[in-house]
Structures are given as structure tokens and as C-alpha cells.
Amino acid sequence: MSPDATKKRPATATSDPQDLELEHHIRLRAYELYEARGREDGHDREDWLRAEEEITSEELRIAA
Asked: In sequence order, what are the residues at sequence separation of 6 or more whose Cβ sits closer than 8 angstroms to the Cβ of residue 50?
């Protein structure tokens, strides 16, 4: 492994402020979905994907 390989950020990491803001909104919505279900574990991926779809759809409507 090269020395530079340890310095690379994960593919999902971002430093773009807009991307960070979008991720924050998705995270908050996913948590709301978790709470609405009564904090039942085991649905984190489902909550994330649903939140991501809701938030990105909303942003597309606003941009249009």
C-alpha cells in the first residue's frame, strides 16, 4: 500500500458545503422516521433511503 493511500478520504466523504447540508437534512429526516416508528431498530437503511428520496425530490421541486 502506498503512503498516499492512507490519506485518501472514503468515497462517501465530501467537503462540499451543499453536500454536507443535504446529508444533514437527510440525516434529520431519517431520524424523524425512526422516531415515528417508535424507535424500532433494524430499519436504518430503509429510513435513510426514504429520507434521501423525500429530501432530494423536494429539492428538485424547489429548483424547478
From this structure: 30, 33
